[in-house]
Amino acid sequence: MHRLIPFFLAVLLLLSLSMHRALSDAVSSLSETAKISRALGTDVSGGTVAASSDSHGGFHGDGLTFVELTFPDDSFGSRVQNRWRSLPLSGNLQAFVYGVSGTGPYITQDGVRCFPLVENGYYYFEDRQAEDTDPHSDLHLFRRYSYNVTIAIYDADAKALYYCKFDT
Q1: How far is Cα 21 from Cα 108, in angstroms, rounded to an integer?
Q2: Where are the alpha helices (DSSP H) in 41-148?
Q3: Dihedral of CA 49/146/128/115: which sign?
Q4: Is the peptide bond before 88 cis (omega within 30 degrees of 0)?
Q5: Residue 162 sits in which domain range?
Q6: Number of domains in the chain
Q7: Prediction pTM value
Q8: What is the pLDDT of residues 112-123, one digit of tens each?
Q9: How far apart are CA 140 and CA 143, in angstroms?
Q10: CA 46, 50, 56, 57 torsion: positive or negative?
Q11: Contact, 87 vs 123, CB < 8 A?
């Protein structure tokens, strides 16, 4: 009987470590959607994180956060259709996100653009370094040497949200 106690303790320890890992993954995912909801001013908690990367860090906090959320239905699209702009992107954002005529794309990871081509949906843009009065205007986007922007594109066909926080 006494020989089984270390075995049961080891099993108990492994189970508790597994539960801790599962809970911390769930909390991390929840906090990620909470941050995106706060940044966009729109609840994204119904989405599931399909992909996520974040290179922010260092002294200045420069980097790129890119998250793909998928939704089971189009309820998210219904919530943003009257608050966000309909695609296509403006000319400046088209160059910034996808690249046009030798300009851009600026939002890349390892030289590959982050955003997939989306034809049907809505987008959100915030210039967190806005020099004019409207932080949702991209008019002066290319008139400086650094960027602090938030861009989100919702693909109504795929029911997917692509969120990006880009700081240089």
Answers
A1: 31
A2: 75-80, 91-97
A3: negative
A4: yes
A5: 4-167
A6: 1
A7: 0.79
A8: 889 999 999 999
A9: 5
A10: positive
A11: yes
